[in-house]
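$ ./design --mode recover --in tokens.txt
reading tokens...
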């Protein structure tokens, strides 16, 4: 018996040891194998942070946990993250692995998942990553021929905690965001028929379509018991409640999944008929706390969908909203919003989206006794929209403020609208304007608007729009934005196809301004930064990418007499700006600035909004170079030779580059060429020349003049190359050439011919000892400029001067040798003549 107990005890020890050790022994292999298989299955990069296996966390089941799961896109979505999941865990019943029936697991839990779902303009989705290899297709065919697989997974509950979603569909111009979603779904998923208990809560729900936000920070909650036929995939809603902010709905009906379609028969009815619940849907930006709000009136809101939904077939659907004799009043305000009547219906019998009919039969509201009415009817919205509508009313904004809280907004002015239209869009497209009725006008007078974020405010003295089937005429627009004045006039064409089908909006405008102060559009922080910084007019303020819509075709002829930006005054701005196909083109935009003139041609494109591009040509005449160098940051980066200067400069530049998110050039993509010209430039307080003065021990080089300045340069991938050009520096001939790398590293040379007396005592003391140096009037000196733009390093290269000195020494020694030989020869001649005379006596 003791022997048996020892053996049994030893077996238990080994078993426990194996339960502890085996998960760790095989963990790395399992993790690596999981990565390989996942990457085989999808055309994306799968990352798995860690895997945990344990026999103790849910004994006798095997606990399985995956951590830090990420799915990262390829190709068009290179670097974009589709899914990030902090934790996925469950527990597997080990005995079910050998039962042959189904693998049994406990609750499946997804913790803190974040999904970024993106659809490009061409309809390509970043979640379409499943690989469809020939092997996969053959396996699917084989499985179909052999019948369904016996492999099954049984689970009783699914929990999703802290799920967030961003859905951005450029093809539909739709964006949806869910900040936080929690879900619990429980039931017997192994049974043919079961009741599923579903509780899900969503917070921070935002829905945007064509730049219009329909939901902002909304809350949703669904509590439902669903009778599920899992064999036939048919689901019947039983006891359920759907909450959307303060609205409460009942959902009845069924939802079925067929092989190639969804079978829908659902009805949705608002269970609360208090008008106040509808106000809870107003975005936070337009409302304040609804507590204490006095309301009356009833609403009826319902919707349905019935029929099959397939790829090319819509089910029948409809929705209806009716508000009857409603009102609301804020307790602290003297006026109210009265006589609210709304009757809106959308319906489609099914089949095609073109069968949709939208009827705004009535919309009436009186805000502080200001009535406004509208009706709208739309048929065949896809093929040929047929519209019939009226907008009519008077709004006194000063009185509106007495009915709707606008504590931080100062607003006034009166708008008077009376516009009606009726007809088919095909009449507009075929230019049969007589078949389409559009008439009326919208007038605005003495409008004022000011907020804490926009303290300078805007005033529109008068503005008048008149409507015709062909165009909207902007007859007048006289405004004041802070100290600036702007006047506009022109016409807007194709506005009906633009509004109904998103077609291109066309327009021709003229803008006039006597004074435009751009400093007023800076934030207080930006203005403080500018004031605190050194007085450099060109210090740039970080911007963000300004996207140009693709469906705009606008022309703007501008005439602005004076523009102020920081300390820079720009005068007589004239030219043409054309916006088309997501590109803004400047044509002969001329202006006077920096004591000179400039003409600009070029373009700015956001056809790839993630990487905008610019392509500009500048013709500059007689700019004050010091102001230009400080004002144009691009010149400061590209042309270090400009430095701190005084004088006039002319230039012609052509540059092209891609841009970053702050609208600055990506220097490695910058290409171009150009030239700078000047008759005279004075350079002072410059690091390079200050260093040269120290090397030469000659302070006169701290302030020097350059005459006949004519420099060309070439930019390739952000690297600047300056071919040799001649210039007079302090009256002496010089040749300058070199390069600046995209990282800002300098490699410039100035070859100069300098008088000996300007080389300083130390240099002259070295050369003065050499014979023949007095015969050298000037020396060839090379000044090497290295380092960086912000911290240049200057070295004096005297190699050519040394060669000149060596040559002078050689010549002097030759001269001395010849003189010595001549002297000795003369002496020898005299002695010889003397001896010869004695010999012949």
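writing sequence...
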């Amino acid at each position: 018996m003791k022997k048996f107990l020892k053996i049994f005890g030893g077996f238990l020890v080994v078993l426990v040891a194996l339960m502890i050790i085996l998960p760790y022994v095989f963990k790395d292999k399992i993790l690596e194998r999981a990565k390989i298989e996942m990457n085989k299955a999808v055309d994306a990069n799968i990352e798995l942070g860690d895997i945990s296996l344990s026999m103790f966390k849910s004994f006798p089941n095997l606990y399985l946990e995956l951590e830090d799961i990420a799915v990262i896109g390829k190709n068009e979505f290179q670097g974009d993250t589709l899914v990030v999941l902090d934790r996925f865990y469950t527990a597997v019943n080990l005995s079910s692995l050998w039962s042959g029936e189904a693998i049994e697991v406990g609750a499946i839990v997804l913790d803190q998942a974040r999904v970024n779902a993106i659809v490009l303009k061409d309809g390509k989705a970043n979640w379409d990553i499943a690989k469809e290899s020939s092997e996969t297709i053959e396996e699917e065919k084989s499985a179909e021929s052999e019948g369904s697989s016996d492999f099954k997974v049984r689970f009783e509950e699914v929990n999703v905690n802290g799920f967030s979603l961003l859905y951005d569909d450029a093809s539909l111009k739709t964006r949806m965001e869910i900040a936080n979603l929690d879900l619990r779904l429980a039931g017997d998923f192994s049974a043919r028929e079961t009741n599923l208990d579903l509780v899900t809560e969503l917070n921070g729900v935002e829905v945007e379509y064509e730049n219009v936000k329909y939901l902002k920070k909304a809350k949703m909650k669904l509590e439902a018991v669903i009778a599920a036929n899992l064999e036939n995939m048919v689901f019947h809603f039983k006891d359920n409640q759907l909450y959307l902010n303060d609205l409460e709905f009942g959902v009845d009906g069924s939802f079925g999944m067929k092989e190639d379609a969804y079978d829908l028969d659902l009805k949705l009815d608002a269970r609360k008929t208090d008008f106040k619940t509808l106000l809870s849907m107003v975005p936070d930006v337009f409302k304040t706390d609804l507590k204490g709000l006095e309301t009356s009136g009833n609403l009826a809101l319902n919707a349905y969908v019935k029929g099959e939904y397939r790829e090319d077939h819509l089910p029948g659907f409809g929705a209806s909203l009716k508000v009857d004799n409603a009102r609301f009043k804020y307790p602290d305000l003297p006026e109210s919003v009265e006589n609210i009547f709304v009757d809106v219906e959308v319906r489609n019998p099914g089949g095609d989206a073109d069968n949709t009919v939208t009827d705004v039969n009535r919309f009436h509201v009186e805000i502080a006794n200001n009535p406004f009415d509208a009706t709208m009817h739309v048929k065949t919205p896809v093929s040929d929209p047929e519209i019939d509508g009226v907008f009519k009313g008077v709004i006194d904004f000063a009185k509106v403020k007495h009915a709707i809280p606008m504590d931080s907004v100062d607003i006034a002015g009166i708008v008077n609208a009376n516009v009606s239209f009726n007809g088919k869009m095909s009449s507009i497209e075929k230019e049969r304007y007589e078949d389409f009725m559009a008439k009326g006008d919208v007038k605005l007078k003495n409008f004022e608007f000011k907020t804490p974020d926009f303290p300078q405010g805007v005033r529109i003295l008068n503005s008048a729009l008149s409507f015709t089937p062909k165009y909207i005429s902007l007859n007048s627009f006289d405004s004041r934005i802070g100290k600036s004045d702007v006047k506009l006039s022109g016409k807007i064409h194709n506005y009906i196809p633009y509004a109904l089908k998103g077609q291109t909006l066309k327009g021709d405008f003229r803008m006039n301004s006597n004074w435009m102060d751009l400093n007023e559009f800076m934030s207080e922080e930006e203005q403080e930064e500018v004031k605190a910084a050194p007085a450099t007019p060109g210090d740039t303020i970080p911007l963000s990418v300004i996207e140009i819509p693709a469906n705009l075709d606008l022309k703007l002829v501008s005439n602005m007499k004076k523009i102020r930006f920081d300390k820079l005054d720009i005068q007589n701005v004239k030219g043409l700006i054309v916006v088309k196909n997501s590109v803004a083109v400047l044509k002969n935009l001329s202006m006077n600035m920096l004591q000179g003139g400039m003409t600009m041609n070029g373009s700015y494109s956001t056809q790839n909004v993630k990487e905008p591009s610019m392509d500009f040509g500048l013709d500059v005449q007689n700019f004050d170079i010091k102001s230009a160098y400080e004002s144009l940051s691009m010149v400061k980066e590209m042309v270090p030779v400009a430095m701190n200067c005084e004088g006039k400069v002319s230039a012609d530049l052509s540059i092209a580059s891609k841009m970053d998110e702050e609208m600055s050039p990506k220097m490695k993509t910058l290409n171009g060429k150009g030239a700078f010209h000047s008759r005279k430039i004075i350079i002072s307080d410059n690091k390079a020349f200050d260093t040269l003065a120290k090397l030469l021990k000659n302070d006169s080089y701290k302030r020097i003049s350059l005459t006949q300045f004519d420099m060309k340069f070439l930019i390739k991938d952000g690297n600047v190359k300056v071919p040799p050009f001649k210039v007079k520096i302090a009256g002496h001939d010089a040749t300058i050439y070199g390069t600046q790398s995209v990282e800002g590293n300098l490699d410039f040379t100035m070859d100069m011919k300098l008088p000996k007396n300007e080389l300083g005592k130390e240099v002259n003391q070295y050369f003065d000892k050499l014979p023949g140096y007095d015969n050298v009037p000037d020396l060839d000196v090379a000044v090497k400029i290295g380092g960086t733009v912000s911290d240049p390093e200057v070295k004096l290269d005297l190699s050519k001067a040394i060669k000149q000195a060596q040559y002078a020494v050689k010549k002097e020694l030759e001269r001395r040798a010849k003189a010595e030989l001549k002297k000795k020869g003369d002496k020898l001649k005299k002695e010889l003549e003397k001896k010869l005379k004695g010999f012949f006596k």
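exit 0
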